[in-house]
Amino acid sequence: MSDGESEPKGTHEDESTAPEPPGAADLTLHELQSEARHLAQLAVTFDTNNDLEAAVYYYRETWDVLNKCLSITGQSSPTAPDMEAKRVEYMTRAQTLMDRLMKNESNRGNQSVNSGETSQLLRAECLLREALDEDQEG
Description:
The protein is an all-alpha fold.
């Protein structure tokens, strides 16, 4: 490092690093699995409440955490098939909801065109009535 720069604490090359305690990787996996469960619960809650954008976000986050779990355990782990099945289920659901969101957006666009057309028709009707009233008055 150059003069005036300081290293972050705990990164000096000469410092000895303590070995990870037994089961530390399992603890990390356990924490990831717990996080995946929590995210999945949030996704289902938002899905149930029809908050599609939030549900999609949390389904994707769950998918990402399950990917990390699978990278730690490997495909040969006894829990890998269950995690893989859930991972696919959550991504499929996220895609289904994304499709629904896009369809809703498309429908909203059509509705705004329709409401724009409706407002123009109402304005034209109003102008026609005014013209007819003025015509009757001479």
